[in-house]
Amino acid sequence: MIRTFTCWLVLLVPALALAQEPDAAATAATRLAPLIDEQTVAIARLNVVRFDLPATMKFIQEIAPASEAEFEEQLAAATKQAEGMKSVLTTAGIDEIYAVISLADVPAQPPFLVVFPKRGDEAAKPGLGLLSELTRLESFSIRGDYVFAPQPVQKRLVSLKAAPRPEFAAALASAGEDATLAVALALNPDTRRVLLEMLPRVPDEIGGGSGRTLGEGITWIALAAKSPPATSLKITLQAKDAETAAALRGTALSALERLGKSEEVRAAVPQYGDLTKLLTPRITGDRLTIEAGGKGDDAKLLAKVLAEPVRAARAAAHHSQSSNNLKQIGLAMHNHHDVYLKFPPQAIRSKDGKALLSWRVAILPFVGQQALYQEFRLDEPWDSEHNKKLIPRMPAVYSLPKLGQGNIALGKTSYLVPLSKQPPAVATAADGDPDKPASKRKDEMPFDLPQGTKFQLITDGTSNTIIVVEALPEAAVVWTKPDDLVIEEKAPLAGLANEATPTFSTLFGDGSVRVISRTVDAQVLWNLLRMNDGNPIGQF
Asked: What single string gives the DSSP state of each residue in 437-495?
């Protein structure tokens, strides 16, 4: 549940819009003061009154378009859920949520939350209950304000000796009343001392200079974000004086320049040039400010920089799901081998050797789908009047969001076995011997053999042999159809990866799952696809 709440906050943060009274920041700082001491290092403020999550989802789709219909449906569901939560909170008079981080609670306890309900206890009860449910934290009241924290933190706060920390009020005020998210950071004397001891000098790789400039020169840092349509980000750094501000700016510029010369940084952050433009600070007296977004070219530049992390997060989520699916398929393959002493054949065939159904049907009992397996007529083809009725019931383990809901509804999958040649429509084992390979070639792929392959035939080693691939959407097939991916030696990446989809997941014979890039050497990939060529694999 805590993970769910964290994901919800991450989703809401860019969509929250503050709508406070003119003196709201000062009032909030006064009310928070009894909960702040020397150990406090950060305060975050967000407001749920005017957030527009649909606009934020639209913005995400614009900067990193997703063709996956299922992904869009998930966003729509999350939006609806978040809107419902917002309604409960605002009806309860909970317009703002504050998160306070104290070193006294780190790392054993999470940050504690503070809310200032504008309604009476009875009216506020539904909103307070929702926050307790989401955070799994009990609430208690301090002068009419509510704190959500674990029991040890509650006990600490009740006996807390507050300390004046005006820097937090100043930092939150600098964020502006119209900020979507406001975060204030400030070091206490003990933290400054530790920082100076650990960092007497700033590493040359990130600008160099005395660590004292950082440890003693920064009073506070404030971050302010606005949600779409006026998407913007503002970072303000308050230095102890104008001279220190100038020194800090010099360090920042030097760090950006040095990092930009690193090939590793450039490779990891392709949009580094645009990022540098956004991160170049402006100096005004004793303050440094970094601003990005708003309107016009600045907004386009911010969207461009944000697009890559969104795509990366989406790709990571996809690979995680695909990896889980392939692991289940791999386990099923091995369990099939345990029972039948071989991997399933590429096609379930009739007595006279005609291909009827896919290997994906054959392993249904081993992916928890015994009941569905028993509904198939194994002596009929995949598109017989009876069997085709089972196509829409494709198990989730064969489903991939990248295919789009339309293809998934048609029962299509991208999990295919690689083949070195098109399997024959009619096939029998050589010389009628089911344990003898049907071909004497030395460069076969595991599922080339109509009768199924035993471990001992994979002479290159199961950890060096790919048995299932995640193909491109255009190569997807109906999951029950005995159809897979024929791979040509001259173009082994065809059907697996392209510029839009630069990586693909693979299942190896030992059950491991690995993601392979389109930059892989073609010969290396070809060697990985064959089970008995005897060639060294190489790096991939």
From this structure: -S---SS--GGGSTT---GGG-TT-GGG-EEEEE--GGG-EETTSS--EE-BTTBTTTT
Residue 491 tokens read as 């173009």
Length of the chain: 540
Both tokens of 295, joined, read: 């309107």
The percentage of the chain sitting over the pLDDT mark of 90, rounded to a whole number, equals 41
Residue-wise burial string across 385-406, b where 16 or more C-beta atoms lie within 10 A, e elsewhere: eebbebbeebbebbbbbbbbee
Q: What is the distance between the alpha carbons of residues 33 and 95, in angstroms, rounded to a whole number?
A: 19
- Are 39 and 188 contacting, i.e. CB atoms less than 8 angstroms apart? yes
Q: What is the largest CA-CA distance in the chain?
A: 90
Written as six digits, the tokens of 212 are 């004292």
Rounded distance, CA 434 to CA 183, Å? Answer: 69
Indicate if the pLDDT at residue 21 is higher than 50.
Answer: no
Tokens (6 digits) for 357:
């159904």
Dist. CA 289–CA 297, nearest whole Å: 18
- For 9, phi and psi rounded to 5 degrees? -60, -45
Mean pLDDT score, 17-32? 59
Q: How far is CA 249 from CA 209, 262, 274, 280, 281, in A?
A: 12, 21, 18, 8, 7
Residue 19 CA to residue 301 CA, distance in Å, equals: 27
Over its C-alpha atoms, the chain yields an Rg (Å, rounded) of 30
201 vs 216: CA distance, rounded Å: 13
Q: What angle do CA 436, 440, 443 make, to 5 degrees?
A: 115
81-85-91-96 Cα dihedral, nearest 10 degrees? -140
* Residue 424 CB partners (closer than 8 Å, separation 6+): 355, 450
The answer to whether the CB of 275 falls within 8 A of the CB of 305 is yes
- pLDDT per position as a tens digit, 424-470: 878 764 434 444 444 445 558 999 988 899 999 999 999 999 999 99
As given in the structure block, the two tokens for residue 129 are: 């209950």
Query: pLDDT-based confidence at 318, cuts 50/70/90?
Result: confident
CA 114 to chain centre: 28
Residue 172 has pLDDT above 80, yes or no: yes
What is the residue extent of each domain of the chain?
2-108+164-313, 323-529
State how far the Cα of 291 lies from the Cα of 235, in Å rounded to an integer. 6
Sequence-distant (6+) residues with CB within 8 A of 55 are 15, 227, 228, 229
Phi–psi pair at 317, nearest 5 degrees: -65, -40
**Which three-class secondary structure state does DSSP give residue 52?**
coil
- Cα–Cα distance, 255 to 44 (Å, whole number): 27
Neighbours of 443 (CB within 10 A): 17
Residue 401 has pLDDT above 50, yes or no: yes
Q: What pLDDT is recorded for position 74?
A: 63
Q: For residues 470 and 495, give the distance between their C-alpha atoms in angstroms, rounded to a whole number.
A: 9
Q: What is the pLDDT of residue 25?
A: 62
